[in-house]
Structure formats: C-alpha cells, structure tokens
Design a protein that fits this description.
Largest sheet: 4 strands, antiparallel
Radius of gyration: 19 Å
CATH topology of the largest domain: Double Stranded RNA Binding Domain
Helix content: 40-55%
Oligomer: single chain
CATH class of the largest domain: Alpha Beta
Number of domains: 2
Shape: elongated
Number of strands: 4
Structural class: alpha+beta
Number of helices: 5
Distance between the termini: 18 Å
Length: 132
C-alpha cells in the first residue's frame, strides 16, 4: 500500500506532509534525509493511531487527491510529490521455525540484552533485512 506525500521547500529545509493523515509531517535539511525521516514519521503515526484504537483512513490515489479542491493549493506549492510505502501492522500469528541450537542460544542472549522477546527480536531483524 502507498500514500501520497507532498514535499515543500523553503530556504533552509524540506518538509513532507501526507494529505490523508493530517498532522503527520516531518522536516529535514536534505531531501534524502527527509524521505527517511518522513517514512519514520509515517510509520510512527500509523502505529500510534492503531494503538489508540483509531481507524486508518482510506489512502487515496494521487489522481483522487489532485481532484480534491481542499488540496489544490498544497499541490500547487509542492516542489515534489512522492509515494511512500505504508506498512500496516497486522495481528501477530504463531509460527514454528527450526534453527541450530547454538544460534538459538545466541539469539536468546542478544534479544535479552537489547530488551526484546525472542519473537520481537526476530521480527525486528526481518523488518531491517527487508528494508535494506
């Protein structure tokens, strides 16, 4: 799933906003940094909404947003328009995996040291691997 982001620029920084998620914004000194920070802000915003029991809006296409008169000025002022991938957390499911005993022992110690459960540690490692 993807969401439209509007990128604006002033003399010192870039900013990104997401019309379908009012209040979800980020700013950075460079465009590269903005895209990373914007993705993080987006993920945190969605996670917070779900934790608070809020329903996520339907993310509209670029064409649908451009047709919305409420955003005419925002689109006109935007330096760039981008689509960012949205990761909607799903419900946890139990899985069974097999791994070498020594590796499992190292996994358990690393998870404990970093304040994770074994499942949380594995999930975070998979997220990072898929993102990279």
């Amino acid at each position: 799933m993807q969401i439209v982001g509007l990128i604006h620029r002033d003399d010192t920084a870039y900013g990104i906003s997401f019309p379908d998620l009012p209040g979800c914004v980020s700013a950075a000194a460079s465009l590269d940094e903005l895209l990373l920070d914007g993705k993080e802000a987006l993920d945190l915003h969605i996670e917070g909404m779900l934790q608070d029991g809020e329903e996520l809006p339907e993310f509209r296409s670029l064409e649908a947003l451009r047709a919305d008169p409420q955003f005419t000025e925002d689109f006109a002022d935007a330096e760039l328009v981008t689509l960012l991938s949205v990761d909607i957390p799903g419900r946890a499911v139990k899985v069974t995996i097999t791994m070498e005993e020594h590796l499992l022992h190292r996994l358990n110690k690393a998870a404990e040291r970093q304040g994770y459960t074994r499942s949380g540690f594995i999930a975070e490692a998979v997220r990072r691997k898929l993102a990279g």
